[in-house]
Write a structure and sequence with these properties.
By secondary structure, the protein is an all-alpha fold. Helix content is 67%, strand content 0%. The chain is built from five helices and no strands.
Length: 115
């Protein structure tokens, strides 16, 4: 791809390209696309994560001075697949932290430790 063609993608529209992939990859072909990019056949099938990973890969390609870039689709897919689980765990951890802080502040006011 020429430098001019790559430059035509700036600013890069991640959301737009992700939506394009989602619209153009047929649902019953999602697993085949995953396999083509080296994603393990045992991994959960998630079209949203796949399309975002493909968009990240393409952004890396158009941002490169080379016609060759590392294939990062499988790695990005794994990260994206884990993301909601990590966010949920972070919310749980934050909630527990807030509860502990409220108990601590209350104990300072009352002079009694609240469990």
């Amino acid at each position: 791809m020429t430098t001019d063609i790559k430059a035509s993608f700036h600013p890069f529209d991640d959301a737009g390209l992700t939506a394009f992939y989602k619209e153009n990859i047929e649902d019953d072909k999602t697993r085949n696309v995953m396999l083509a990019f080296g994603i393990s056949p045992t991994m959960e099938e998630n079209k949203d994560c796949l399309c975002r990973a493909l968009s990240i890969q393409f952004r890396m390609f158009v941002g490169s001075n080379s016609d060759e870039v590392d294939d990062i689709v499988a790695i990005e897919y794994q990260k994206l697949l884990a993301e909601p689980k990590m966010k949920k765990q972070n919310c749980i951890n934050l909630r527990e932290f807030c509860i502990q802080e409220i108990r601590f502040v209350s104990s300072l006011r009352t002079g009694q430790l609240i469990k």
